[in-house]
Specification:
Layout (H helix, E strand, L loop, with lengths): L17 H14 L7 E7 L4 E5 L10 H11 L5 E8 L4 E2 L4 H10 L4 E4 L6 E4 H4 L15
Parallel strand pairs: 3-5
Antiparallel strand pairs: 1-2, 1-3, 3-4, 5-6
């Protein structure tokens, strides 16, 4: 029995999932209020579902929106994100992930694409291209004896 091909939500000629960008922008606009929540992230699951999250700023170094997204996705049974995007509040638009978020996404979802760029220059980039010569945690674990 064959498995149905998941829908491809990148119907725009530039290959960007603009519906996902709109979802993140909506969360940034409606849920990010005040200094504690200034970034929103959205991820599209392989089955087409969209998961959203906001950062949890704290002076001790609270998690970025992309990291909260990883946990929110797992809580909803999503373990295979295809595309992720982060958007800043105050109409700042798409914001690229920080180094820590890039590393975590590479380790959790090595095939994920990340939407980067601004305005009409948005593009979807494989996470590995954002981390050239990257450290892949799984590749450096000792084999059980």
């Amino acid at each position: 029995m064959s498995t149905p091909t998941p829908p491809d939500h990148r119907t725009h000629p530039d290959g960007v999932d603009h519906g996902l960008v709109r979802a993140a922008a909506h969360v940034a606009r409606t849920r990010c209020r005040g200094d504690n929540h200034t970034m929103a992230a959205a991820g599209r699951a392989r089955d087409g579902r969209i998961v959203t999250a906001v950062n949890a700023y704290h002076f001790t170094g609270g998690p970025c929106a992309e990291l909260v997204l990883v946990g929110a996705a797992a809580a909803q049974g999503v373990y295979d994100l295809r595309t992720v995007v982060a958007v800043g509040d105050g109409d700042r638009g798409v914001v690229p992930p920080c180094g820590r978020c890039r590393q975590v996404m590479l380790d959790y979802f090595p095939g994920v694409e990340v939407v980067v760029g601004g305005g009409d220059r948005l593009r979807a980039v494989p996470i590995a291209e954002l981390l050239p010569e990257s450290y892949v945690w799984a590749d450096h674990q000792l084999a059980p004896e």
